[in-house]
Task: structure prediction
Amino acid sequence: MPLSRERIVTAAIDMIERHGVEAVSMRRIAAELSCGVMSLYNHVPSKAALLDDVAERVMSGIEFTAAPGAGWEDQVRAQARAFRAIARRYPRCTMVVVSRPTNSVTGLRPIENALATLREAGFGGGDAVLIMRAFVGFILGSLLREVGVSPALGDAHPSYSAQAPQRLHLDPEEFPQVTSLTAELTRRDPDADFEFGLDLLVHAIAAMVPATPAS
Amino acid sequence: MPLSRERIVTAAIDMIERHGVEAVSMRRIAAELSCGVMSLYNHVPSKAALLDDVAERVMSGIEFTAAPGAGWEDQVRAQARAFRAIARRYPRCTMVVVSRPTNSVTGLRPIENALATLREAGFGGGDAVLIMRAFVGFILGSLLREVGVSPALGDAHPSYSAQAPQRLHLDPEEFPQVTSLTAELTRRDPDADFEFGLDLLVHAIAAMVPATPAS
DNA sequence: ACCTGAACACCGTTCAAGT
DNA sequence: ACCTGAACACCGTTCAAGT
Result:
């Protein structure tokens, strides 16, 4: 099997999911593909570019399965869930996607879809962009939280995070809420969290939907 | 001036803001502090721990300036803005904060505050946690977008991002919305974006506030 | 207790040499 | 056109030696 950009990117993705981004090196990838390190550079200009390709590939896996006749609320929900679905499939690659600027056309596809849905719902261009940005913010942050790293109590996906048992002792005087709500805070139900936030945003947007939908 | 953990963390933060995280190395920090590399290890166990300290220090800079008599809406807004303020002060460190799990007590402070505000507004524990998480998601994602990296058209803070001129050509047939809304999409007004999303969430939450506030 | 240089096992990437 | 080993300028960290 000849070396190719595709094969290298695939190897990188596998390695990220298996051992984490920090474990990825050009030398390890070469070893995985049984070739010399420098052979990689015939297909990929640099490690940074390779990681860009990883992000690109992962993003391109987004699949929208919106019912054609559905209202804009369901469409928006479906788009948000599609975005999130890739994070569940490639949890560790998601960190790469999220922490790296995407100037590629692939990254614009979801944005185009969201804007189209919102405009069809009757929103003006300016509002559509603002609403889309609020959604992107929420989705991005939720994935970040979910994928394991966040300024929150809960920790990552159980299979990855080893720090679960580590319970830092808290002064109930200083943290009355956090201590009294331990049960709710340690419960892990990312689906519920995501859907709740999605509901909040959709309801808020529904409240500002124009009276006369366009088209 | 003797070496100390504080001085090392400060040097690391300065270096991150000036040259980016990827430029930070123990050897560079040692050079900056005019000491041998290994001297650092008398005060900091590892580079990873140092970056944890960086995140901790940055987070601890959050200052809440909520008017004591203000309603919960204003309190929540103030907390979100306080969080965001540090991202504007330490844009590049924010990536470190956001992409690294915080199991420290410092990271729980904002959560405690948010929960207290929401409970005082009359929400039950479970709802308060869900609402708080939605807010954290939105804030995290917004900071990520703002700090420069995101699946969006706009790019980072102008002083950092050099890729601004790079305009990727888009097919108007394939991306009608993105091409027709170029003006709105390239406009950079992070304040407006953030406030808009904040409004959405606050309104949605106000719509579900219980009839009888607690206490 | 704090500092430090040498050394080890790694990096990404350039370059020149091969086919 | 693609592959590759050697070499360069880096890494983080261990260890043993200094004060």
